[in-house]
Amino acid sequence: MIEIIKTGALNTVQDLGRSGFRHMGVSVSGVMDPLALRAGNILLGNDENAACLEIQLFPFRVRFLADTSIALTGADCRAKLDGEALPPWWGCAVKQGQELELNFPRHGARSYLCVAGGIDVPLVMGSRSTALRGSFGGHEGRWLQKGDRLPLGETQALPLPASGMGIEPPAVAMAAAFPCNADGVIQLRAIPSGEYELFAADHARFWQQQWQISNQSNRTGYRLSGEPILPSKVVEMRSYGLVPGIVQVPPAGEPIIQLSDANTAGGYPKMAGIIEEDLWRLGQVQPGQYIQLIKSDAREAISVAAEIQRWLTRLRDSCLPMKKVVGL
């Protein structure tokens, strides 16, 4: 069990999300950076979908009420265990009574605390993710508060060494597959979508300009600030199904990227869809930072997905010695 000592609003229990319920108006939820969750769980010998803590407001502090192992992935949050600094993308054993503190990240937006056995909150619609808008899932359907105690699942994996071990972050291990422009701005690949041709006059500018992530951004969606793009004509549209990554253009002309807690339906024109394989990078962009959208296609998305699978396979193979033979 772990106890929350200090936290901010919006820090929650998340896994990879709940699927199969969008027709009922239930959003996916789940982590904003699925590669960080999967990597941390692999290091611990957990199921890759085991629930973790997603931390996006800092400082954050927890106390461990039993011996266990942890993995920290995602943003470099200047972690300290009983005052001793821990590297980013790091796993180690912890003792009962030790306290872990995470601070505002040097890089990235969200940190992930994975624990051996996972956070053992009840399954709701097949997931342990917190759905804040619906007030269900996770820990009592809400964000974490001081004094909360979270149970941990059982594990058959060997404990990590007290000295710790690290993971090469995906941004480093797969740098060639996840580009930035000459200014270091993250480039996200997107495929033109349904109403793309309505914005024909602004196609070049949509792809060329650097969009700033507005402060009016959260797990529901990121609003992009920049020179507006406008349709050639106003059209009446019926609501349609939404998935994370869809880039909609409201009447003001500044796009919105739908994300983990997005509505399941909407009616703004669809300009593009960011490929699923790039969404983890968007989850690590802070409001105020810039991104650039790059025109892509399904073939490139499949190639990037294969590169991610190769990285995960290498990580699984390197972590095999940490697992017990029985059951894992």
Automatic annotation (TrEMBL):
Residues 23-311 form the Carboxyltransferase domain. One of its GO terms (molecular function) is ATP binding. It comes from Winslowiella arboricola. Signal peptide: none annotated. SMART domains: AHS2. It comes from the Bacteria. InterPro entries: CT_A_B (IPR003778), Cyclophilin-like_dom_sf (IPR029000), PxpC (IPR052708). Keywords: ATP-binding, Hydrolase, Nucleotide-binding. This is Biotin-dependent carboxyltransferase family protein. The lineage of its organism: Bacteria, Pseudomonadati, Pseudomonadota, Gammaproteobacteria, Enterobacterales.
